[in-house]
Each structure stands twice: as structure tokens, then as C-alpha cells.
């Protein structure tokens, strides 16, 4: 540098009185550097003040004349020209490289870069910034990475196994293998949750179903299958057939004066869960219950007996409302949903034999379902004897979790889950969902680790145990973290029974996810016809055919107990259902015989689930359509209008319920305006708005009920007198017979519904000091 200064001095015929020093320093409050300029005249480093110490102190100061000024101007212009030429040549070279990238002649990285000159004069390039993945890119990447062959390999891991019963060897081995696979996928964290639960197992001898006629006992069947949580013991009673065991079926028998107290109720599978059928039978005073599989198109399944459970609820029925962790002191309580009567499943062949012995009233035509000689009652002295030898057992079950942590809000997450256990091989019941779970964990982790995808929120992958007993593993986890999960988990995606056929699509979901589901189906190819999308199969009116979640679906407690939006998606055949579900014949071979597109269908289900999870963790704003609940409430209000006069006759009014519905509508409109007018790049504002959306589902859990006594508090999807459906049924009964309705109970129902909806509206507004002004 000294030589350069000397050359400048000689060129201009003089010497500068001072020079500047450049100091590149990193600021303490950020990554930006600044250039610090210090004049030598400001420093005292020796020599005369204002003079550098390496210059001779006696040198006369240079003359500042016009000639020197001209030289300075010419030199500045020359330097500018040289800089322009260097910049132009550098820019031209970069553009040539970019053009080669664009025309395909070179293999180039398109991430923009900047260049600069180092101290030795060589040109260097800055490290390229992170790759930006927009939603279409992310969606296409997921589709490209999903592999049918890996799905097949995952599903084949269940081949050759007879049972994966919860807490037993095969279930634990599968849990260990899933833990190892999650670890090999390089998930950010993998862990287990242990629960100690009370389950029911088959006793030392099989249960028995016999008929007693003229003092002689004839054994009809002694199946290997059993019904968990059935009461053990022996009962006898006259058999009565009640179709599917729905409330309407029992009402039909009551209307014709058929007594059911002290009888053994026989019903067929379908429509509602076994636990609901048994609960209806118990209300009528039955002493026992039998269920058989509905007829299928082929007679192959006529001898099969399904397993099942009779607990009208989810989770461990001996720790209702709280988790069964190993440090829990279990009180001597039990769920009110236990049946307290013996229950057993039988084959269709045995049901036909039983009908052949019955000599009473014939079945209505709509009840026959193809069974020859179907009878409703028994007029002779013949009775049915049912013996149940089930025993209670204490077992440890494992839930396996893996997580991809979010880069902005790791404390918020989507949960993707699948049941792992099954009483038989469980290819369709548990194998398909587990295979899809593993595939999604591997693919999404690969996108994060190798393709620069940075989800804003976390994605949790969960493998549940004891699902066969009523979503025990999932419910115990929810109960263990009930105080925080509703504020952290904003969606649960259920993968169970994703493929039971190929002709139709079955959807169960929270209204909050309808819009996201529709957008997803418009971008996923139909496995039956690659030239069209899945949406063309379900049709524009698919929402009218959404199936309510039942107690056997692991998504049910997420929605009805914890207030978390859920989606459950799968393929099935409406006219030829997969009746092997829950039997020992639920094998991979039989499932492949059911559909020749098993793996393409699994691939499609994985793509639907994956797109939903990625979209929810990709966007700034949560893809939750809270306006849908305004439509649901309006639809409910329209059903109530027919009962205005009946309610007024009791001195009551429905107006307050209507006002609450209007408040929710205005609150939803206000939130929509807040979102539209907000700075979406502001993380604090965005998180606050997402908080308000996340609370919508949770705020429809009635706050006036105990989660221990009434765990499913959701007024839309729960179970109990607090639900809107129960209120509607009570009003329908009021229209038929005024004296049959308890007025005080009706008042309570109206109050609970009104204030739950009003509370949801207040929460949607956000700040309580704006509540009255907003709605």
C-alpha cells in the first residue's frame, strides 16, 4: 500500500496530507458489516500532529493548484471506466453461464449468487442462499418420491404372522422395528410412550353358544374369537332378532309390543359399532347379545367369526378421563360405557341355524338381508345359553413416535397416526396404515434433509397400540397431555383401513378441513384413471356424503375428546364390503384378492395424507376453513325452525340459540377481515391469528361437563345429551308427544348449546375487550 501511495503522489506531483484507514467490523446486533473510516489526522501515533509518522516531518506541504485538480478529475474518470469494463465483463460471463443453464447445455444451479473481489484481487462467489420451495414444487416432489415398492415391502412385514395382539410379542417386535426405522430415517427425535392398561383376553377355554330345548342342550358354536370387555359368566334367554341393533330397530319392536327384557338380542354387523348395539340392547333389559357378520357376495366368509370390543367409549375403561402411565395411582373406578352383560360374536352359519330353530314372527322384508327363514322371536320354550370365559389382564403397551421439527414454530404440529396391533394378521386393519405411516416418515424426512424443505411447524408420526380395544393407545396419550395438546396439535390425520376396496372413497373429517381436502383431491391423480383427478370420482357434492366418525376410529377421540381437527380417508366397495376386517382371515392374500390395485390405492392414500400434512406446515396461514362451522350452525338452525311453536307452548324460546349462531357468524367474518388486513410476514401477528383458528374446534367442546364423566364433549360430534343431535331428537320427540319430554332437561340442553356456541364466538374474536363491539 505504501508503494501505491507513493505512485499516486508522484503522479499528481504532490503528497496527500492524510489518508484513510478502512476497518471492516461485524456489528454486534446483526450479521451486517460496516466500513469504519478513520482519518490519520484524528490519531496521535507519533510524529507531528496531522502527519503520518512514516513521512518526513520537514517536508513542505504540497501546492493545490489547478493542474493537480485536472489530473485528479482525469484519474477519477479513468478509474470509473476501468470499473465499468470489469463489471460488464463479469456480468456478461455470468449471463452466459445462466443462458447455458436455461437452454439445457449446462448443468447449473439456478440459485442466484453474488460475487466480490478478495484482497488478492481474485473473484469469489458467495455461498448460495437456501432453496425456496413453493407449494407446487413441494407437491410434485412428494408425488415423485412416494414409492409403491416400499409400501409393498412395508406391508409384507406382516406376512406369515397369525396375530399382533396388543402388548404381546409380535406387537412389541413390530414396535421395536418401527422405532428402528424412524431412527434410520433421520427423524429429529424418536421416542416411546409406555402405558399400563387393563385389557380383556380369552380364557382358558373358548366361549360357547348353545340352545336348550326340551331339557336338551345343543352346542351351536365355540369360536376362537371373543368380544373384549364383555361380562364373564353364563346367561340364558329367548333369542330376539333386532336387525342392526340401531335405536330405530328397537323402536320398531316396541311399536308392535314385543318385550325384550330378559332376552338375548341377536343382531348383524354394520351401520353402528358393536359397542353401540350392545348399549342399546342393555337399555331394553337384555341379558346377553350375539352378533354375526352380514352376508357377503361370496359364501367364503360365512364361517368367519370377528373379534370386537363392547366398551362404549375409547381408551382404558378402568382409567376413565386420565392416563394410564406407570406412575398413576389407579382409583377403583370404571367407565360407564362398559356393557355389564355377556357378549359374543358368531358366524353367519350359526346365525342361520339359530333362525332355523326360531318359530315366531318373521323378519320384516328389509331386515332379512338374504338369510333364509329369518325370524324375530321365539314362541316355543327354546332358549339360548351364552357362556363367556374372558379374563382381565394387565399389559404394558407402547406408542412409538417420531418427529420432524418445524423451523419456525416447532411447538405446533400435525400428527399422522396409524394403529399397529390386530387380533389376526390385520393386513387391512393395521398393516396398510402402518405401511403408509412409514413411507410418509421416510419421504418427508428425505425432503427436509436432502431437498432443503423447511416446514414451518412440526410433523409427528405416531404408531398406536391397543387400537383393537377402542383406540386405547391414542386415547391414553391424549389424556396424558390433554391440557396442552389442543393448543399445540392443529390436525390429526388417520391412516387406518385406508384400503378396503377400490370403487368408492370414504371420507370422515372435521368441517375445518373440508376446503383443504377438496383442494387436495383436485391435485391427486385417480388410481383407477390416471388421466383424471380424484375429485372427479367423489363429485362436487362429496361433503353431503361425509361419514361421521365412529368410536372404533382412532381419530374420534382427537376430535370429540381433545377438540383437534381430524381427517380419515380411504377406499372401499359399498356393494361388497370387506367383511374379513377383524377376523383371522384379514391376510395380505385376501386383501389383494379383494382389489387388484392395492398398492396404487395405498400410494394415492399416502399422497392425500402427505399433501394435507405438508400444506398445513408450509403456508404462513393455517389452511383451516372456520367459515364451515357457520354453515353447519345455519343448517342446524334450519332444522329447528319446525319446532318453534312446540317450544313456545312450553314457555320457552329458541331465539337465544339463533342469536348465538349469529354471533358466531359475525365473529368468523371479523377473523376473516383481520387475516385479510394483517401483515402476514409478521410472525407475532401470524401466530396470534393462527391461535384463533386453532381454538375453533376446541371451543365446541362443552365447558359445562366433566371430561371424566362425559369425555366426548363436542356438541357436533360427541356423545351425550349435550350434543346438538340429542337436542334435535328431543325436539322431535316433543312434536310427537309433549308429555314424553322432560321440560327441565330440554331447558338445560338449550342453555348448554346456546352458551357453548356463544363461547366459541367470543373465543373467535380474540381479545375480550373487543368482544361486545365485534359481535
UniProtKB/TrEMBL annotation:
Domain PA: 237-312
Single GO MF annotation: transferrin receptor activity
Keyword Phosphoprotein: yes
Domain Peptidase M28: 399-594
Keyword Transcription included in the entry's annotation: no
Gene Ontology CC, one term: melanosome
TM ranges: 69-91
Assembly behavior: Homodimer; disulfide-linked.
Function statement: Cellular uptake of iron occurs via receptor-mediated endocytosis of ligand-occupied transferrin receptor into specialized endosomes. Endosomal acidification leads to iron release. The apotransferrin-receptor complex is then recycled to the cell surface with a return to neutral pH and the concomitant loss of affinity of apotransferrin for its receptor. Transferrin receptor is necessary for development of erythrocytes and the nervous system. Acts as a lipid sensor that regulates mitochondrial fusion by regulating activation of the JNK pathway.
Protein name (Swiss-Prot/TrEMBL): Transferrin receptor protein 1
Organism: Cyanistes caeruleus (Eurasian blue tit)
Lineage: Eukaryota, Metazoa, Chordata, Craniata, Vertebrata
Amino acid at each position: 500500500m505504501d508503494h501505491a501511495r507513493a505512485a499516486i503522489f508522484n503522479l499528481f506531483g504532490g503528497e496527500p496530507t492524510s489518508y484513510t484507514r478502512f476497518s471492516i467490523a461485524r456489528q454486534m446486533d446483526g450479521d451486517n458489516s460496516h466500513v469504519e473510516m478513520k482519518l490519520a489526522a484524528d490519531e496521535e501515533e507519533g510524529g507531528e500532529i496531522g502527519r503520518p509518522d512514516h513521512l518526513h516531518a520537514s517536508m513542505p506541504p504540497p501546492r493545490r493548484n489547478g493542474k493537480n485538480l485536472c489530473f485528479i478529475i482525469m484519474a477519477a474518470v479513468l478509474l470509473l471506466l476501468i470499473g465499468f469494463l470489469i463489471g460488464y465483463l463479469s456480468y456478461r460471463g455470468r449471463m452466459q453461464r445462466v443462458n447455458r443453464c436455461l437452454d439445457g447445455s449446462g448443468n447449473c444451479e439456478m440459485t442466484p449468487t453474488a460475487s466480490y473481489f478478495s484482497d488478492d484481487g481474485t473473484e469469489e462467489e458467495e455461498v448460495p442462499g437456501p432453496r425456496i420451495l413453493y407449494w407446487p414444487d413441494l407437491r410434485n416432489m412428494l408425488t415423485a418420491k412416494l414409492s409403491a415398492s416400499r409400501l409393498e415391502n412395508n406391508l409384507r412385514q406382516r406376512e406369515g404372522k397369525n396375530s399382533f395382539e396388543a402388548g404381546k410379542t409380535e406387537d412389541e417386535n413390530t414396535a421395536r422395528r418401527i422405532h428402528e426405522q424412524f431412527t434410520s430415517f433421520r427423524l429429529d427425535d424418536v421416542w416411546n410412550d409406555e402405558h399400563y392398561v387393563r385389557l380383556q383376553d380369552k380364557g382358558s377355554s373358548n366361549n360357547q353358544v348353545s340352545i336348550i330345548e326340551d331339557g336338551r342342550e345343543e352346542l351351536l358354536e365355540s369360536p376362537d374369537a371373543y368380544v373384549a370387555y364383555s361380562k364373564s359368566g353364563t346367561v340364558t334367554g329367548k333369542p330376539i332378532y333386532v336387525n342392526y341393533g340401531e335405536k330405530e330397530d328397537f323402536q320398531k319392536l316396541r311399536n308392535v309390543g314385543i318385550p325384550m327384557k330378559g332376552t338375548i338380542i341377536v343382531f348383524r354387523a354394520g351401520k353402528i359399532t358393536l359397542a353401540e348395539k350392545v348399549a342399546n340392547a342393555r337399555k331394553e333389559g337384555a341379558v346377553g347379545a350375539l352378533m354375526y357378520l352380514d352376508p357377503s357376495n361370496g359364501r367364503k366368509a360365512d364361517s368367519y367369526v370377528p373379534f370386537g370390543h363392547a366398551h362404549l367409549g375409547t381408551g382404558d375403561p378402568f382409567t376413565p378421563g386420565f392416563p394410564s402411565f406407570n406412575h398413576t395411582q389407579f382409583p377403583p373406578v370404571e367407565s360407564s360405557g362398559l356393557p355389564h352383560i355377556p357378549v359374543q360374536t358368531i358366524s353367519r352359519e350359526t346365525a342361520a341355524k339359530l333362525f332355523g330353530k326360531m318359530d315366531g314372527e318373521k323378519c320384516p322384508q328389509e331386515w332379512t338381508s338374504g338369510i333364509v327363514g329369518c325370524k324375530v322371536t321365539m314362541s316355543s320354550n327354546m332358549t339360548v345359553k351364552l357362556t363367556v370365559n374372558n379374563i382381565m389382564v394387565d399389559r404394558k403397551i407402547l406408542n412409538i413416535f417420531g418427529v420432524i421439527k418445524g423451523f419456525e414454530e416447532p411447538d405446533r404440529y400435525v400428527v399422522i397416526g396409524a394403529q399397529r396391533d390386530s387380533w389376526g394378521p390385520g393386513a387391512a386393519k393395521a398393516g396398510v396404515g402402518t405401511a403408509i405411516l412409514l413411507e410418509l416418515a421416510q419421504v418427508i424426512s428425505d425432503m427436509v434433509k436432502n431437498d432443503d424443505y423447511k416446514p414451518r411447524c412440526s410433523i409427528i408420526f405416531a404408531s398406536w397400540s391397543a387400537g383393537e380395544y377402542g383406540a386405547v393407545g391414542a386415547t391414553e396419550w391424549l389424556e396424558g397431555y390433554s391440557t396442552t395438546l389442543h393448543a399445540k396439535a392443529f390436525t390429526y390425520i388417520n391412516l387406518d383401513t385406508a384400503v378396503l376396496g377400490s370403487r368408492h372413497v370414504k371420507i370422515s373429517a372435521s368441517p375445518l378441513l373440508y376446503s383443504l381436502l377438496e383442494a387436495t383431491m383436485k391435485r391427486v391423480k385417480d388410481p383407477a384413471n390416471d388421466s383424471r383427478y380424484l375429485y372427479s370420482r367423489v363429485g362436487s357434492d362429496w361433503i353431503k356424503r361425509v361419514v361421521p366418525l365412529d368410536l372404533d376410529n382412532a381419530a374420534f377421540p382427537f376430535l370429540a375428546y381433545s377438540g383437534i381437527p381430524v381427517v380419515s380417508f380411504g377406499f372401499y366397495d359399498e356393494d361388497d364390503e370387506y367383511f374379513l376386517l377383524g377376523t383371522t382371515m384379514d391376510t395380505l392374500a385376501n386383501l389383494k384378492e379383494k382389489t387388484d390395485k392395492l398398492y396404487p390405492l395405498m400410494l394415492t392414500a399416502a399422497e392425500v395424507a402427505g399433501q394435507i400434512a405438508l400444506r398445513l406446515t408450509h403456508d404462513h396461514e393455517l389452511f383451516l376453513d372456520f367459515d364451515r362451522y357457520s354453515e353447519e350452525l345455519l343448517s342446524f338452525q334450519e332444522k329447528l325452525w319446525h319446532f318453534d311453536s312446540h317450544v313456545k307452548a312450553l314457555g320457552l324460546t329458541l331465539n337465544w340459540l339463533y342469536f348465538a349462531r349469529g354471533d358466531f357468524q359475525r365473529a368468523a367474518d371479523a377473523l376473516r377481515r383481520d387475516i385479510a388486513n394483517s401483515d402476514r410476514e409478521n410472525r407475532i401477528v401470524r401466530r396470534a391469528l393462527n391461535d384463533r383458528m386453532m381454538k375453533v374446534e376446541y371451543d365446541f367442546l362443552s365447558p359445562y361437563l366433566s371430561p371424566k364423566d362425559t369425555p366426548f364433549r363436542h356438541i357436533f360430534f360427541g356423545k351425550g345429551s349435550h350434543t346438538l343431535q340429542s337436542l334435535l331428537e328431543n325436539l322431535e320427540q316433543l312434536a310427537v308427544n309433549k308429555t314424553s319430554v322432560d321440560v327441565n332437561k330440554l331447558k338445560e340442553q338449550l342453555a348448554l348449546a346456546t352458551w357453548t356456541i356463544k363461547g366459541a364466538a367470543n373465543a373467535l374474536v380474540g381479545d375480550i375487550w373487543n368482544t361486545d363491539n365485534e359481535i
